UniProtKB/TrEMBL annotation:
This is Carbon-nitrogen hydrolase. One of its GO terms (molecular function) is deaminated glutathione amidase activity. Transmembrane segments: none annotated. InterPro entries: C-N_Hydrolase, C-N_Hydrolase_sf, Nit1/2_C-N_Hydrolase. Signal peptide: none annotated. It comes from the Eukaryota. The keyword Membrane does not apply.
């Protein structure tokens, strides 16, 4: 069995408290038999504003949050996929961050070749991610994990079909044509309004069009006075069926439902289903779209 766990948290500006929430989930996921734990975007912190975000970000090599997760991965012998902020090496006045997804092995090592930097930054209403985040430059090749080959994308990337298809239904010119992603993962912190309108529809669409498992660990609830996230972490199978749905928010203020913060879901990412769906309904002809 390829058991994975999806963990839902509510990060704040306290990295210590965020690490504690995550480590609790690491331990519970391991006890439940999961081989990989998926955690949300920005698990290290959600800041009040741009300035605070630039101040809080620490390089992954020294970040107590990342180092703490590496030790937890090792002591519980479970791999972790997690979203963090990585500062670029500029002066603080001009500094930018990368919005990064890390993969930590069950031995507690960061697999550098698996790191992915969010390609599409989210500017919407009063959220201007481009004030602090420099967009990534490229996709990361699908990489092996104990539950299957993972293709990493982040949050707002969910709105773009192209990177999902490139990772999971690559054409013959792709470097990973023979080794496509079997699991697309979207660590997220969706807004209440856009989550209500689009979250589940987009995730199911990506699963159906790519014939892949889709794992989306989400932030939930109120991070601070100005910010809340939609929650409802989801796992969708390659046929588009929802296999796990965690709790969400209960009102317009974004207060989390009871039990939604720190909630954990388990799923068997059965690659027999992946093969069957693709075998029954092959989606070939990618050669017709060389621009992709
Ligand atoms: O701010 C941080 O530190 C972490 N980053 C985020 O929460 C990002 C950028 S503000 N959120 C999204 O991409 C939400 C996308 C979304 O809600 C949609 O596409 O509808």
């Amino acid at each position: 069995m390829a058991i994975a766990a999806v963990g839902q948290i509510c990060s704040t500006a306290s990295m210590r408290a965020n690490l504690d929430q995550c480590v609790r989930l690491v331990s519970e996921a391991a006890v439940g038999g999961a081989k990989v734990l998926f955690l949300p975007e920005a698990s290290d912190y959600i800041a009040h504003n741009a300035q605070e975000s630039l101040t809080l970000a620490q390089p992954q090599s020294t970040s107590p949050f990342v180092q703490g997760l590496c030790s937890a991965a090792k002591s519980h012998a479970i791999a972790i996929h997690v979203g963090i902020h990585e500062p670029l090496p500029q002066q603080e006045s001009t500094r930018k961050l990368l919005n990064r997804a890390l993969y930590i092995s069950s031995g507690g090592e960061i697999i550098e070749s698996a790191s992915y930097d969010k390609l599409h930054v989210f500017d919407y209403a009063n959220l201007k991610e481009s004030d602090t985040v420099q967009p990534g430059a490229k996709l990361t090749a699908p990489f092996d994990s104990p539950v299957g080959r993972i293709g990493s994308l982040i949050c707002f990337d969910l709105r773009f079909a192209e990177p999902a298809i490139s990772l999971a239904q690559p054409g013959p010119r792709s470097a990973w044509y023979q080794r496509p992603a079997q699991i697309l993962t979207y660590p997220s912190a969706f807004t209440l309004r856009t989550g209500q309108a689009h979250w589940e529809t987009l995730l199911r669409g990506r699963a159906i069009e790519t014939q892949s498992w889709v794992v989306a660990a989400a932030q939930v609830g109120r991070h601070n006075e100005r910010r809340a996230s939609y929650g409802r972490s989801l796992v969708v199978d390659p046929w588009g069926e929802v296999r796990v749905r965690l709790g969400g928010t209960k009102d317009d203020l974004g207060d989390a439902e009871d039990g939604a913060v720190g909630q954990l879901g388990f799923v068997d990412l059965d690659m027999g289903v992946w093969e069957r769906v693709r075998g029954e309904m092959p989606l070939k002809r990618r050669d017709v779209y060389p621009e992709l």
